[in-house]
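Hi Q.,

Before the meeting this afternoon, I wanted you to have the guanosine-5'-diphosphate prediction in hand. No need to reply - just skim if you have a minute. The sequence and ligand are here:
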Amino acid sequence: FMNLTKKLIEVRNILMSIDHEEGLKLPSIVVIGSQSSGKSSVLEAIVGHEFLPKGSNMVTRRPIELTLIHTPKSKEEYGEFPQLGLGKIHDFSHIQQTLRDLNLAVPESECVSNKPIELRIYSANVPDLTLIDLPGYIQINNKNQPETLKDKIVELCEQYIREPNIILAVCAADVDLANSEALKAGRKVDPLGLRTLGVITKMDLVEPEIGAAILRNSDYPLHLGYIGVVCKPPASIKNKKNITSALIRHEDQFFRSNYVYSQRGIQVGIGTLRKKLMEVLEEGMAKSLFSIVGAVQKELEESRYQFKVQYNDRRITAESYVAETIDSIKQNFKNFAYSFGKPQVRLEVRSMLEQKVMDLCAELYWTDNKIVDLPKAPTDELYWKYKLDMSSAALTKSGIGRTSTQLVVGVLMANMEKIALLEPLNNHPDISSKLLSLSNEILRNKFHTTSDQVENCVKPYKHEVECSEQEWTDGVKRTISLIEKELESCNRALQNIKDTVGKKKLRAAIKYVIDDAKRVQAQARDSGEGTVVDSGNETSTLTQVQSVVVNDIIEDNDSDRHRLHFNPKVIEKAIEAIFLRDRSMILKYRLAALKSRQCKSPENKQYCPEAFLNMVAEKLAYTAVMFIQVELLNEFFFQFPREVDNLLVYGMNKNQILLFAKENPKIRKHLELQEKKRKLEEVMEKLNYISRDASGWLGSANGS
Ligand code: GDP
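Predicted structure with the ligand bound:
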């Protein structure tokens, strides 16, 4: 018989690890009782060691699933927490401390948790049993405990005392049974008391006549009856040895000294309790055996079917998933590396430099009042020669090494982030961010050498830039299209303002702004101060108008001048429109100049500064990219796949590989179903074996 329970306990533990589904349950003994009823003392008497945490405030906050495994041939006594993987624990005070820590880990706000702690105890002195210790019922809510605590405990206990579990209702002899929370809860789910066993503790605290009356159980009859015990260990045996026999000796003395306890129909003693528990559990297990075989069979068929339908019977392992993941990360990376060669990098660097050129032209040329005179200026005019040198230097000495390297690093990282968002990396946030920071590190390590290299190689251009006819013609062509684009966006912005403000209103506002500016200028001239504006040149006048009017509006906000009927927002738009009209006009001038004969030859570069600067930019881009390619890109494309290997091939142990694979919900489901199927197959095999073994015995049990 012993073997049956033991094997079914094994089966029960496997089934529990699958999931707690109804129907897939073998019975366990659930221990309930009020706080201080002596619940822990009873459990410890059965186990033979003090191992439960005790204290004044509630210490059991989670169910403890206690599996006792009888190991007759071994002298070793130890506990194990299979969920924690701490290995064998021989010191029971260590078990006690671990249980305390696990209980205290439940946050105060939650009070109790229904997540069970699994504990297995192996010993020659324990019977094969599974016991579940639950938080004790509480009478009144402690001031620090929220109102709902009482209900929460009741609810938790209710979950556990359902069929087919056996209820061990612990009551203290010195408390009226009518008030026993444990018996009340038991009656609710098991009114006939068919699977409830009463344990009356602290028998030493009541008169023998009263004690015997309780055990005869005429008021609250239970089919399995009541067993009286005395579980207070004598102070003398507080050591690390097994306490059961000493307890039983002590208890025996007490019961023997009162003859009423030896009457027929009265059950007393821890020994009796242990025997009874084994019998009851075994009976319960045997009763459940057939239904569990059926349920497991059904569940197994279902998971086999699902495995076929969903996965076509394809088995995977966490390792195979990791290998596939590495391949696809590398493939994604390769695709990117392939699409990010020299031409693409050059495009990036060139368009950055072109933007710089446009900004320089705007700053140094297009806002220069004399720009309209440039085509007619004498060839040797120093003003323009000097300006060209200055703007060329501004371009070549702007720190191309750094900015271009930074740009490419930025583009690379942006692409790496895109790869991180793709399958399969999107399922693995941890590895993704590790790979990103590794990429960053590779690039950072190469950053300084690369930007220094580039800077060195563009050094000659800081002194002189020569160009061929072809380079010049190409430069002019690119510049024309750039300025055309600039002109287009200028016109678009202008149209946008016209559309939002309204043509008429805008025209009036512009007229007002110009008049106002002229008036302010006149005033300034009259009073003999302020800037003298080069009259007769509308462009320059307009350029100056802006600052004057803006200042005027800011400083003169509350004056009662007639402009008040214009909304300040409209004035702002008008100023913007003037600027855009102005810029558009200059761009048209410049386009004409660039298309003219004058710009056909590099000899005339000072007449076509935009084209010259663009030609310089192109040379800079070409040189920069050449070195960025060698120093940065090649290195990165070589290094990254190796980092992937380091991280995923060499960097994970078996457990980490499993965790990694399960991060992917699809793989997780696949692995879990596979695992469930495997466990059910194992259980089925065990059950078949047990049924064959037990059939003779079961026949006689059913007959009795
Ligand atoms: P729990 O809160 O239900 O787990 O109760 P405990 O097992 O911690 O016991 C509560 C108190 O009752 C402790 O001080 C125990 O020493 C004491 N106690 C437990 N069993 C007996 C017993 O059989 N006789 C006597 N006199 N005291 C007991």
